[in-house]
Amino acid sequence: MERMYKFLGVIIIIVFLSYYARQGEEVRYSEEVAIPFGIGYDLKSKVGDEVVYSIPITYYIFGSDGRTNNLTVEGEGSFVIETRSDRQRKINKKIFNGLERMFIFSEEVAKDGIANIIDGLFNSHDINDHALMVVCKDKTKHILEYEQQGYNSSTEFIEGLIKNLRFSYFFSDDFKVTNVSSKSLAEGRRVMLPYIEITHEGIVVTGAAIFTKDRMVLKLNLNEAKIMNLLSGSKGTGELTLADDTYKFVGASAENKRKVKVIKEGDRYKFIINLNIDLEVTYNEQDMDIFENTKNLRIFKDRMSRQIEEQGEEFIHKMQSVYKLDLLELGRVASAKYGRRTGVDWDEVVSNSQIDVNVNVKVSRQGKGNY
């Protein structure tokens, strides 16, 4: 951790020198500036179209003794940019932008719409548009001020949490400002962000926030998010289990790869989702040796394939009949083949289309150890 802070200090010094040289100003010491690290977006009030934002920001403060502390300061304003001046009057250091790592939206803000925030971040020259984004329950200030054991700030922990989420539940890693901005504008794409909460276990991911354009319209729990990610992405990783009639389990680490075929017949569409799942068996308490018996291997692969297909079909049925949203970005595939900007409502089309799921399971290896 100490080496990381030294490296961060070197980078900050280089940035300072470059920036102030261009501005023709005297180079400042690091003790004279506040570095924004985690930024939250809350609604203080909304009456009709009149909105007042409350935006807390966690800053890194560098002491003359070499220690790094953090401070969370709120700013209020009817426009996001106004909150910057409101915060500056409450902090005795110059705010130095460009090293932001996390942008956190409260569910209230996410449901109200984040287009103006995304546009402001993406178009600003002094904001890090590769910072990560998440949605949280309740107020973001509670998240930013949460004391995470072993970390200088909760923002550091959340950044690592989201970066490494791609190793579970088949999540992707496209939660950066640039990804969110492009997805919200592209036909057939859908913004999905991790949803975090403070629980008795601390700050944890509890699901996925689903957007239509720039507004959050749905929260999926982790089990639903897992199946959605499995059906909609590629090169995601996660854990899959298969139980027999005696509730004995086989557990496996999995990586998915998706290919989609689309067929249009008149005004009707048919989608065929082909999933290739590569498994590493890590736990086996069933009374069958999977690797030394060809028959057992075939039985295991068939049962696992069918289980994934059934879970996928169940999710698709709920997606079409309850959510009525294209959560699998099938519209992106169809528009690429049959033409974009035709005015098609892909949520409606996908909700009324035939969607088939075919799963092919490959067992490549097993973990060491004899279970």
From TrEMBL:
It comes from Clostridium malenominatum. Pfam families: Spore_GerAC (PF05504), Spore_GerAC_N (PF25198). This is Ger(X)C family spore germination protein. Belongs to the GerABKC lipoprotein family. The lineage of its organism: Bacteria, Bacillati, Bacillota, Clostridia, Eubacteriales. It is found in: Membrane. It is a lipid-anchor. Residues 206-367 form the Spore germination GerAC-like C-terminal domain. Keywords: Germination, Lipoprotein, Membrane, Palmitate, Signal. Its main location: membrane. Gene3D superfamilies: Nutrient germinant receptor protein C, domain 3. Residues 31-198 form the Spore germination protein N-terminal domain. The keyword Cell inner membrane does not apply.
